[in-house]
Specification:
Layout: H1 3-10, H2 16-21, H3 27-34, E1 45-46, E2 54-62, H4 69-74, E3 83-87, H5 98-106, E4 111-115, E5 117-118, H6 121-127, E6 131-133, E7 135-136, E8 153-155, E9 158-160, E10 165-169, E11 172-176, H7 181-197, H8 200-217
Parallel strand pairs: 2-3, 3-4, 4-6, 5-7
Antiparallel strand pairs: 1-6, 2-10, 8-9, 10-11
Helix pairs in contact: 3-7, 5-6
Length: 223
Amino acid sequence: MTDAETSGAASTGAGADVAAAFRDVPTTTLADLLGREQVMDLGIRPLWQPVPRVAGPAFTVRCPPGDNLMLHAAIHRAAPGTVIVVESGDLDYALAGGNVCAVAQRRGVAAFVADGVIRDLAEVRELGFPVFARGIVPIPGTKAQVRPLNEPVRCGGVRVRAGDVVVADEEGVVTVPAARAGQILDTARARLAAEAAQSLDDWAAVHRARVDKALREQGFEEV
C-alpha cells in the first residue's frame, strides 16, 4: 500500500475535529452509550499512570506473532493525531520500544493501542507517550512480514476499522464507529451536561427509586 492509498483508507473515517473532541468524554460515558461490544477487554490497559485521556481516528495495523515490521512502518505513515491500533495477540515478543515510541510521539501520533506487548517501559513512561497494551517483555520481535495497513483489525476483542474513533483513558479503551461518531459525541455531551447539573441528593433519590423498583419486580421483600 502506498502512502497515498494509506491516507485514502483513513480519510473515510471521523473528522479530526470530531475525533479530538472525544478527549472530553470519559470512556465510562461511551461504554454506557455503546455497550460491551465496543469496549476492549481489560487486558488492554495503560502501561503507566497517570495516563491522560487520548482520542483520535484509528490507524490500523496487523502484525503476525513475533514480527513488528508493520507497526514500525506505520509510525512513518500515520497522520498526526491518530491512534495506532495493532492486532497481534503475541505475548512473547515486543512490538515496539522506547525509540519507536519516541519517533511516533515526534510525528504527532496520539497513542498506541496494541493487542500485544512492548518493551523499554521506563523510557516510554519518561516520554509521557500513552501506550495501552497487554504488558511488557524485553525480547524484540523481528521485521520480516508485510501486511496491508488500514485494514479492519481485532484488538482487545473489538473490531476496529481505519477512521473509527478510539478513546482511551485509565478506565479502558472504547472504539466509536466512524459512521456514528458525530451522533455519539452529541449524545455524550448532553449526558455529561445533565450529570453535571444534577446534585448528589437528586442522583441518590433517582438511584434508590430505580433499585427499589427492580427489587419489587423480582419479588424481593424486606424483612
